[in-house]
Amino acid sequence: MAGLLKERLGHWVSFYPEPILLIEGGVVRDSNAALSRLIGADDPAFCHGQSFARVVSIDAQRTDGVSWLSGMLSGPDAEVPVEALLLPLNAGKDAREHLVYLRDRRPWLEREETLHRAKLQAEMERNSARQFLAQMTHELRTPLNAVIGFSEIMVNQLFGALDDRYRDYAEDIMQSGRHLLGIINDILDLSKIEAGEMVLDERQVDIGRVVQSSIRILSERAAMGQVSIQVDPVCIFPLVIGDETKLKQLFLNLLSNAVKFTPSGGRVLVRSEIDSRGWLAISVIDTGIGMSVTDSKIAMMPFKQLHAKTEHDDRGTGLGLTISQAIAVLHNGTLELVSEVGKGTRVTLKLPADRLMAVS
User: Fold this and answer.
1) Of 282 and 199, which is predicted with more confidence?
2) Whole-number Å distance between alpha carbons of 246 and 259
3) Model confidence, pTM
């Protein structure tokens, strides 16, 4: 057993834990004991004198250089998936003798199968969670819209005057309902993002009008907090190709965060420019409380709420930046956040040059 191999390689070959075969002219001349153990053959020399191609069928053609190739080892009563490494015993292109190292692929295949099953199971669980979430949000939205609608009727006193106290209660109900609806919408958006189901309704968009509209929506809130919010007069706002609704959602998220975390007397500024690559960069800059480098990274993660115990605590879902980043990526762009504690934050949306049209 392994006589020729011992002559060529030494006594260690008998104790080598994986199969080694000696091939001459395409015929198996010798092998070590590990080969018969792997295939479960009683005869240690079961393949000696046989064509190597009959003993080990290789799935792919050999490439230049040293590489392991997958194949199937055939024995008297069984087959074992293996990887084979073919090396010439002596240097030179005309070498007739080769060594073939084999290793068992079954542990690797079992791991692959385990991972595949786990992936399928996880996907099934995600699909079930998404279906539940979609159904739950629908079931919540319908009565919630009714609550908001009826509370608006009461606040506006469409069916008659209300006592001031009851009107205040109706106002609280309406605002709480809108807040809850916003949370539900954010969670549903996140589920679409994770499922890869969020798509763009692309058309020509006046990005300057989107920014101004977002500022108008938040102007009352900013005024209540004594925070000025404005657009730099030298801004450049090209027409872009994109989804107007989602871009507005992005700017509302950024401006809302900026106003929320800027103290009284502070400022929020929107600034834009065309960079050296021809990309449009629109920044929302505030003079707020800022964040450390570590917190800046955490802020981009879903459901992460920083400053949760400060005077600025106006809790949402912690999804605003996550959703905004996904919207930027859908537009082939990026969302970059730079912040410094005590000095403020700059969040910049960058859109590629091929999405820009005329300057408005």
Assistant:
1) 282
2) 20
3) 0.59
